[in-house]
Amino acid sequence: MHELSVTKSILNICENEAAVGNFKKINKINLCVGEITGLVPDCINYYFNIISKGTIAEDAVINIKKINLKINCLDCKYEGVMEKREYLCPNCNGRNFKILNGKEFYLESIEVD
Ligand SMILES: [Zn+2]
């Protein structure tokens, strides 16, 4: 995924919300970003500063909550956090698992005036 297109879609959502809710200004944007989305928070911040100029979300603070990678192992039934680097079930070292969390990316909430 590319940060620029992702950041644009965040701004779009914010502007739509602002239009619907008749907000004057967006102060804070709370995002949730999964560990394995590959999205870099610093890049999102960087692009947002540029593309939000002159919009209702100019100067908004972006707060990014990281979501850890969690799996459900189909072999040993382990359910919990997995180290991204290893990509193996921490309990049985198997690779036969389902990813529960870590792939998500969404706008959790915005704070407005
Ligand atoms: Zn396992």
Describe the structure.
It is a single chain. With 113 residues, this protein is of the alpha+beta class. It contains 2 helices and 6 strands. The longest helix has 19 residues, at 3-21. The chain is elongated, with a radius of gyration of 17 Å. The two termini are 31 Å apart. The chain binds zinc ion. The site of zinc ion has 8 residues, from loops. This is Hydrogenase maturation factor HypA. Ni(2+) binds at residue 2.
How are the SSEs ordered, and which strands pair?
Blueprint (H helix, E strand, L loop, with lengths): L2 H19 L4 E9 L6 H11 L9 E7 L2 E4 L5 E3 L15 E5 L3 E8 L1
Helix pairs in contact: 1-2
Low-confidence stretches: none
Terminal residue distance: 31 Å
What is the overall silhouette?
elongated
What is the succession of H and E elements? HEHEEEEE
Rg (CA only): 17 Å
The DSSP helix count reads: 2
Task: Using brief descriptors, characterize the structure shown.
single chain, 113 residues, alpha+beta, three-stranded mixed sheet, three-stranded antiparallel sheet, 2 helices, 6 strands, 32% strand, elongated, binds zinc ion
